[in-house]
TrEMBL record:
InterPro entries: Methyltransf_11 (IPR013216), SAM-dependent_MTases_sf (IPR029063). One of its GO terms (biological process) is methylation. This is Class I SAM-dependent methyltransferase. It comes from the Bacteria. It comes from Rhizobium fabae. One of its GO terms (molecular function) is methyltransferase activity. The lineage of its organism: Bacteria, Pseudomonadati, Pseudomonadota, Alphaproteobacteria, Hyphomicrobiales. Keywords: Methyltransferase, Transferase. Residues 145-191 form the Methyltransferase type domain. Pfam families: Methyltransf_11. The keyword Transferase applies.
Amino acid sequence: MLTRIVNRLERRKREKFEAWMRARSQSSKTAGADDVRWLLPIVKELVRSSGIEDDADLRHSAQELLLTQLPKEAWMLAPGLEKRAEPVRSTWTYQNEVMKWDIAETDLVLDVGSGGYPFQRANHLADKFPEETTHRVEPMVLDGRTFFEVDIERLPFEDGAYDFVFCSHVMEHLDNPGQAMRELSRVGKRGYLEVPTRLSDVMFNFTRLQDHHRWHSIRLGNTLCLIEWNESERRELGNEFFEALQSAYTNPFQDFFERNRDLFFTSFHWERQIDFLVIGKNGEILDSSSGIGK
């Protein structure tokens, strides 16, 4: 089996790989971190160039070959070499294909901040920026549903005009999220908000982006709390977790993410009123549904 694997490598890669294997066999020391970093790209190239991803036996043998060169405590670093049958569910896919919604067919539903991925159940769509922005690079979806160009802090609708208002991944961008939430609860009888958590922004390295996410979120009981990022927290953290999540190959982080979406996004259902607290970067209360700090 090993011969079949090695023979699938291009000649130059095969010679380099075999030279490394000979050096390893002549040494009594176990592979170190530098050796592992050198070997992993070769194994990944083997997968890309040799058709291993379509041959389970070859794939498993390639992984076993890699494991023989790693200390036991490093086995968790070895790639699975198996392509995903389908990508990790996006936020839109999860909301529209997995989440269950208590929305009647006769309910009038508004999606505020619909962007490139509007809520399927919405009758009306609304967004402030029909053109491309720093917050959205995908094209705006205008699919025949009624569309309104709006400012979320001054919505042009009557009180209680909608049975349900959907607003996903908008609050974290706003200068005045408290006023936006007052407007949502004014025009809607009930609704849904989704906002990234602190963990999400840190692991996916959104903190490095100036003028992108101003707030992260946490739910405390029935209160949605938005906390402002301070400048010391805005630094480059690397893209390892983001790349692992987006990878076409299965890996433990993808499983962790799919089992624990609630750690990455605050899902907040509300009725009649949105109870919220907006906390500034120095710990001060900037705004709240009770009027404190406003």
